Amino acid sequence: MRLAILGHVDVHRLVRECNLNATAGCRGSRGSENHQRTDIILALRGLVDHLDVITLDTDARGPEEYHGDSMRLAVLPMRARPRARIRDAYQHERRVLESQLKAWMPDRVTARQTYEYALGALDFSRDSQITVHDWSPAVFRHSPNLFRAARVATQGLCLARGRHFGAVSPYILRKIQRFSRQPVSMTPNGLAPGWFVSLGVDRVPGRVLAVNNGFSPWKNVGTLLEAWPLVRNAHPGVELVLAGADYEDGGAAYSWAESRSLLDGVKFVGVIARDDLPAAFQSSTLFVHPSREEAFSMVVLEAMASRTPTVAGANAGAVPWLLKDGGGALIDVSDSTALGEGILRALQHPEELAAYCRVSYARARRDFTSDAVAKRIVDSLGTSIDG
Fold first, then answer.
1. Statement to judge: residues 173 and 317 lie in one domain
2. Are 170 and 202 members of one domain?
3. Under 8 Å between Cβ of 29 and 11
4. Between 20 and 30 A from 376 (CA), which of 47, 48, 74, 254?
5. Does residue 385 sit within a domain?
6. What element of type H or E holds 68?
7. Per-position DSSP letters for 17-53, written without gaps between them
C-alpha cells in the first residue's frame, strides 16, 4: 500500500532521520515542531510499502520535495496570515495539497487534522480518512474569537464532506460518531520510545510542574495561580513551576499574577526545549494540569510516561480516560479552593502518588507508544500487518 499522511511535521528531523535527499528547488523549509506526529511517521515507515508525507510551511515559496527509500516528503507553501487563510476557507492551501496528491496518487490518504489538511485530502478523495484531534466548538466556547469561529465552520465542513473518521480519544469519538455513517476508529496520539527511559534524575521535593501552551481561560492556569496560596500556606517550601509559551518571566501569565499579588512561590520558566522536557517531568514531585477541556492532552501523556504523578480535571474531556483506573488524581479544576485542596491531598499522601505512577506508566507504555499508534493507524485503514 502507498499511504499518504498529511499534517504539520518537523521537516528537518524527517530529512535527517529518514535519509531523504532534496530535489532541485528545495530551500530547506523547517516545517513545524510537531514531534508526536513526526514520531508516528517514523514508526509508520516499516508498516507500509511506501509512505508519502505532505506538509505546509509559511517559509516555502514553492513546492519542495525530498525523496528517499520508499518515502517522499513534500513541503508546500502556506500563506503566513491566518486571517487570509480562513477568509476563503483555505482555498490556496487546499489547492496545493490536492495538486500534490494528484501528482503522487497514493492508494490511501489520512489527514490527522480537520482543517486545511483535511479539506485538501477530501478535495482529492472523499474516501480519505480524517482524524479529529480537537473539538472546535469546545475550544471556541472557552476562547471565543474570529479565528476560533472560523475553525468551527471549517471543522463542520469536514464532518459534512467526510466519510471515514478517526478520533484521538473516546471523548472525541462520541462527538463525531453522530456525523458519520461508518464506525469511527480510535487512533490516539503517541510518544517516542525515548520518553519511557528513566534519566536517573532526583525528584526535587515540593516541585509542582505545570506545562501549557498559552495563557487563556481554556488552559485555566489563572485558577491554579489563585489556588497556590492555599498550598503554600500548608507547605511553605513548595514551588510551582510554570512552563510553556506565555509563562516566561515577565510574560502574560507573570503580569496577570503580579497584578493580583500571586507571585509567591511561583517560578516562570517559559518554553522548555523538547529534549529537556523529560528531565523537567522526572525531576518534579507532581504534575498539575488545570485545563478545562482536552481532546487528548499530550502533556498528561508525557507525565504518565515520565512516571510523574498527575492531578487534573475530572471533567476535562479526554483527561479522565487517560488517567483511568487510578492513573492520577481527578478533581474539580474550575474552583480554586477545590484545586488547591486536591494538590494538598496529593502532596500529603506519597503512597498514592507512587500508585498513580505505576498505573499511568504501565498504561502509557502499553497503549500510547508511537509504534503502537502507528499500527492502529494502519489497521484502521484496513491493511494487515505481517507479524
1. no
2. no
3. yes
4. 74
5. no
6. strand 64-68
7. HTT-EE-TT-----B---HHHHHHHHHHGGGSSEEEE
Classified as helix, coil or strand, 312 is strand
Structurally, the chain folds into a number of domains equal to 2
**Is 283 in the same domain as 162?**
no
In this structure, are 184 and 215 located in the same domain?
no
Domain for residue 182, yes or no? Answer: yes
> Do 175 and 246 sit in the same domain of this protein?
no
Q: Give the dihedral sign, CA 84/85/86/90.
A: positive
> What residue type is 51 in one-letter code?
L
pTM as predicted: 0.94
Residue located via cell numbers 482555498: 91
Domain with 172, as residue range(s), is 2-190+369-380
pLDDT in tens, the chain (387 residues): 999 999 999 999 999 999 999 997 787 777 777 788 999 999 999 999 999 999 999 999 899 999 999 999 999 999 999 999 999 999 999 999 999 999 999 999 999 889 999 999 999 999 999 999 999 999 899 889 999 999 999 999 999 999 999 999 999 999 999 888 889 999 999 999 999 999 999 999 999 999 999 999 999 999 999 999 999 999 999 999 999 999 999 999 999 999 999 999 999 999 999 999 999 999 999 999 999 999 999 999 999 999 999 999 999 999 999 999 999 999 999 999 999 999 999 999 999 999 999 999 999 999 999 999 999 999 999 743 333
Alpha-carbon distance 323 to 359, whole Å? 8
